[in-house]
Amino acid sequence: MVFIQILLGGITRLTGSGLSITEWKVILGVLPPMNAGEWQEAFSKYQQFDQYKLVNSHMNLEQFKYIFFWEWFHRLWARSMGFVFLLPLLYFWLKGIVKTHQVPRYGILLLLGGLAGVVGWIMVASGLEEDMVLVNPVKLMMHLLVACMIFMYLFRLILEDTYPKTIVRYDRKTRTWITFLLILIVVQIGFGGLVAGARAALNCTTWPLMNGSFIPAEVGIHVPFDEHVPENNVTLQFIHRMIAYTLTILAVYVYWRTRNTLAKPVFHVYRNLMLLCIIAQVTLGVLTVINSQGAVPVTLGVLHQLVAFLLLNIMVGLHYFARYRAYSNSSIR
Predict the structure, then answer these.
(1) Is residue 154 in a domain?
(2) Nearest 5°: CA angle at 20, between 152 and 60?
(3) CA-CA to 95 of 20 to 30 Å: which in 16, 76, 102, 170?
(4) Would the pTM count as exceeding 0.85?
(5) Per-residue model confidence as pLDDT tens digits over 140-150
(6) Are residues 241 and 280 in the same domain?
(7) Same domain? 50 vs 185
(8) Of 194-208, 303-317, 319-333, where does mean pLDDT reach its minimum?
């Protein structure tokens, strides 16, 4: 369900649907408009904001219903996840399957889910301010990073419950490299949020060069960032590309370094998945850029985001198995 929510978030962003619902109604927002009058009221509220006035003034009610659906479904799915998680947790706790001292371990997920909702609304509200037609890129990045936290923590719990920790010898240097690679992937996803929020991919749609150069002349830092988003777009995309190249090199190095690691098969399964996923992600990134003529293709953009989160999970697994399933080999120290 979390993975599907990330999919829905990507579709919502790439279809420009995020600002279609201009209110945050925790209870009443579960139901969409139910009749023609309610639809017209929702459309009229959207028409009061600058995204409609400056970008979508041509939009009719049927087109509004399309973008409304994606934002509504994104919010509905988030609410559903809360119930799907909380009700079984209470049941398992009352039955004694989940012990009282374990409840906080799982309860952290509920808090993170609530945080994602709050940050999501802060993000949407930033796009409803005067003279704004998009959400604030920094707040979009924050929303995406909270999703990273949920995804990483949830998968780590799954690993601990599926493959209980076993005290073994392991190569600490290798795990340090894996840790660094994992952190860099989180940073890259954050930059991806900035690039997406600022629509920076549309500034340079060629590869491997950017506007005819490896280091484009437009690269530079303009502060404060919120007031100079367009001027920073080329820089954002340049940094995003450089981190991607660095990640690829590091992934190949970690893959090579761990080739002789004495470990249970699951460790080497994750090694192989890591390399395959890195290659797929770079390929998707290039395809997304070169096909972004006027707008980012929804399919490629969503796939690029989804594979990023798959890679994140793979690295969480590799990080776990490097310590709890791998046995050190003196030949690689």
Answers:
(1) no
(2) 145
(3) 76
(4) yes
(5) 999 999 999 99
(6) yes
(7) no
(8) 319-333
Where does residue 101 rank: exposed (0-12), middle (13-18), buried (19+ CB within 10 A)?
exposed
Q: Report residue 324 as tokens.
A: 């709890």
Instruction: Give me the domain span that covers residue 31.
Output: 1-135
The 8 Å CB, 24+ separation contacts for 62-69 are 64/20, 65/39, 66/15, 66/17, 67/15, 67/16, 67/17, 67/20, 68/17, 68/20, 68/21, 68/32, 68/33, 68/42, 69/17, 69/32
Co-location of 110 and 200 in the same domain: no
- pLDDT bucket at 133, cuts 50 / 70 / 90: confident
Dihedral angle sign, alpha carbons of residues 108, 317, 179, 148: negative
Task: Report which of residues 102 and 221 the model is more confident about.
Answer: 102
If 0-12 CB within 10 Å is exposed, 13-18 middle and 19+ buried, where does residue 82 land?
Answer: middle
Q: Is the peptide bond before 208 cis (omega within 30 degrees of 0)?
A: yes
Q: Specify the pairing of strand 262-263 against strand 326-327.
A: antiparallel
Q: What is the pLDDT of residue 151?
A: 95
Q: Which residues contact 15 (CB under 8 A, 6 or more apart)?
A: 66, 67, 70, 298
Mean pLDDT of the chain: 90
Contact 229, 202 (CB under 8 A): no
- CA angle, 12 as apex, 28 and 155 as ends, to 5°? 90
Q: Does any domain span residue 151?
A: no
